[in-house]
Amino acid sequence: MSSSDAAGTRHPKDRPWVMRTYAGHSTAEASNALYRTNLAKGQTGLSVAFDLPTQTGYDPDSPLSRGEVGKVGVPVPHLGEMRKLFDQIPLTEMNTSMTINATAMWLLAMYQVVAEEQNPDLSPSEVAHQLAGTTQNDIIKEYLSRGTYVFPPEHSLRLIGDMIAYTVHEIPNWNPINVCSYHLQEAGATPVQEIAYAMCTAIAVLDQVKGSGQVSDEDFEKVVGRISFFVNAGVRFVEEMCKMRAFVELWDEITRERYGVQDPKMRRFRYGVQVNSLGLTEAQPENNIQRIVLEMLAVTLSKKARARAVQLPAWNEALGLPRPWDQQWSLRLQQVLAFESDLLEYDDIFDGSPVIEAKVRELVEGAKAEIDRVQAMGGAIAAVDSGYMKQELVSSHARRRAAIEAGEEIIVGVNKFDTTEPSPLTADLDAAIMVADPEAEKAALASVEAWKAQRDQAEVDAALARLAEDAKTGTNLMAATLAAARAGATTGEWAGVLREVFGEFRAPTGVAGAVGVAEAGAELTAVREAVRTTGEELGGRLRLLVGKPGLDGHSNGAEQVAVRARDAGFEVIYQGIRLTPEQIVAAAVAEDVHCVGLSILSGSHMELVPAVLDGLRAAGMGEVPVIVGGIIPESDGKALVELGVAAVYTPKDFGLTEIMGGIVQVIRRANGLSVDE
After folding, report:
1. Cα–chain-centroid distance for residue 465?
2. Residue 480: phi, psi to the nearest 5?
3. Collapsed DSSP state (helix, strand, coil) of residue 232
4. Is 552 a catalytic residue?
5. What is the spatial distance between Cα 610 and Cα 640, in angstroms, rounded to a whole number?
6. What residue ranges do the domains of the chain occupy?
7. How far apart are the C-alpha atoms of 16 and 343, rounded to whole Å?
8. How far apart are CA 169 and CA 129, in angstroms?
């Protein structure tokens, strides 16, 4: 017997998925170097992370951008920075995913113009027809979970519809929208809710395109065929794999029955995935590698429901910004599965399984019922405006947090099996993560100043005037946006014009109607009593202000703190996301609060927290304690305490009721009352 026979028959392998790493930080030059390094390591596509000012339509010199420039992604305030970002990367040969939503049209326009500049011998249309990639461009999930929305829902939907109509004709290989249920899961969505709300979003978008009259009936199938999805995969990998099979089945049914799509290829459920980042733990972070692998298996094991593109987080993302080596490790996880294992040699290994079929049926039926509920309200936009979907997610998340605290849902190394040996991976915590370039903000400010000095201002003014005029009519906004990009307008100027025409929007927080802890156990009962008696000693009910300073829209933690604080008996003031330090101080003064809690996950804590502390002192409220929660490295936490912060909480502090007890003690200490030691 030959060795090959002994080893078993080898089958031809299917083509692997596109392998990406979600990356971008500090400056365009630094991000460009990272992209080219990752491509050289075998990455087969780019996934661009933009910083929060770029995502929310502000230039680096906006007061709202303070502390946020280059923190969670790369700043791209104008065409010159887009050129630097893709220097020596031929865009007509690349598949680029851009995680961008409210300002997606603007970033796509700049991407196309850079590609035109790289190919001066071709016409703009010829270049556009060669581009391939994806703009996330899902604004509905921004209102529900991620928070980087800018304009009201109906105007945002118009921008999406205009982009889809443009790309189907001019950039036929582009996915103009990536319906994104990823953040819904992080905000508490069950698999049923994740499927249902993603499908409701897709229905709203397709109905918008159909109703706009910009796409013919015969081209509408192409529109459906270019819609892609971006999903989350959690650690319950059997359920997650069944979720993906349910997605495939339901999308095929909706596109066939609701929209009459005949071509099976156009009905195919095409999706990329980033496995769950917020499920990664700060405690025993080495366990995150096996979590990431299990989550990757959920979206690759089933051939019929296999992801088209996969990007994996790094093991240390709960600690801070991953280093290039950490990202390489995540890429190698994918490559081992694709190239060393035999996974890609077989047809779907789950076909015919009664267990899998039963679970898929359960998910499909549950999702259909929830879709029907939302459609009966008037669809996804109406369910955003009413707060229904947000409230459901906050309630679902509250139930999960309660289960973790009660030990009913086990998180290894966090609420069980938490004894540990010292880890060599985190022996030097400051070296275990990368720090964003502290000079990035200065560099971005200088870049915008220099850019504005060299451009033709009259040309910019004319382009922006055209954009405003087109926005007031039903004209497709892509042409005016391309003209503004070519003229040299900035990200903040483009968004500023549309803010003037469309107005801005503040989404419902979902906190007021959310169901928190149904039954109080002994621990919560004790905290309630401490809240009540402390309030009596201070002459009224304890008031806690929960604030989200800066542009960070990850509101899940703040919402859960607000809900549990309400359940513990606090009067809670929570005004939602994207507040300046000045607005938070003004609210603290107006409400005469006993404590200010700040939630920041974007890495801007060292700039924004001191601004709040200084503001409170200037307002004569320096004695009001400030607590801070977020992804905060240990050295930064110590520095914040030295600056006057009363307590710092990070992801390892998962016990919300315990945190409430800590807040009561902080308030008592600040007011000279006896405290429990």
Report:
1. 32
2. -65, -35
3. strand
4. yes
5. 8
6. 18-315+323-428, 522-671
7. 10
8. 9
Q: Is 410 helix (H, G, I), strand (E, B) or coil?
A: coil
Q: Which CATH number fits domain 18-315+323-428: 3.20.20.240, 3.40.50.790, 3.90.1150.10, 1.10.3720.10?
A: 3.20.20.240
Catalytic residue among 78, 359, 397, 548: 548
DSSP secondary structure string, 597-647?
Answer: EEEE-SS-HHHHHHHHHHHHHHTT-TTS-EEEEES--HHHHHHHHHHT-SE
Give me the catalytic one of 552, 594, 605, 649.
552
In sign, the C-alpha dihedral spanning 591, 592, 595, 600 is: positive
Q: Specify whether 649 is catalytic.
A: no
The conformation of residue 434, written as its DSSP 8-state character, comes to B
How far apart, in whole angstroms, are the C-alpha atoms of residue 368 and residue 199? 9
Going by their DSSP bridges, the two strands 626-630 and 647-649 should be labelled as parallel
Residue type, 48: V
Catalytic residue among 35, 166, 182, 197: 182
| Spatial CB neighbours of 267, under 8 Å, sequence gap ≥ 6 | 224, 225, 251, 252, 255, 256, 261
DSSP state string for 528-561: HHHHHHHHHHHTS--EEEEE-BTT----HHHHHH
Is 22 designated active site? yes
Catalytic residue among 222, 243, 554, 605: 554
What are the structure tokens assigned to 434, written together? 């990368």
**Separation CA 304–CA 245 (nearest Å):** 7
Q: How far apart are CA 286 and CA 552, in angstroms?
A: 27
> For 121-178, how does the pLDDT look when each residue is reduced to its tens digit (9 = 90+)?
999 999 999 999 999 999 899 998 888 999 999 999 999 999 999 999 999 999 999 9
**Contact of 323 with 453, CB cutoff 8 Å:** no
Beta partners for residue 96, in sequence order: 46, 133
CA–CA separation, 677 and 662 (whole Å): 11
Q: Report pLDDT digits (tens) over 442-460.
A: 999 999 999 999 999 999 9
Which one is catalytic: 25, 71, 78, 183? 183
Task: For residue 310, give the 3-state DSSP assignment.
Answer: strand
DSSP 564-586: HHHHTT-EEEE--S-B-HHHHHH
Domain 522-671 classification at class level: alpha beta
Sheet holding 46-49, edge to edge: 22-23, 46-49, 95-99, 132-135, 174-175
Q: Which two tokens stand for residue 245?
A: 């099979």
Going by C-alpha positions, the residue among 653, 661, 650 that lies closest to residue 605 is 650
Reduced to 3 states (helix: H, G, I; strand: E, B; else coil), residue 309 is strand
What DSSP line would sit under 467-533, residue for residue? HHHHHHTT--THHHHHHHHHHT--HHHHHHHHHHHH-------S-TT----SS--HHHHHHHHHHHH
Backbone angles phi, psi at 510, to 5 degrees: 80, 0
Q: Catalytic site residue 554?
A: yes
Do residues 564 and 657 lie in contact, with contact meaning Cβ atoms separated by under 8 Å?
A: yes
Q: Is pTM, for the whole model, over 0.90?
A: no
pLDDT tens digits, one per residue of 617-633: 999 999 999 999 998 88
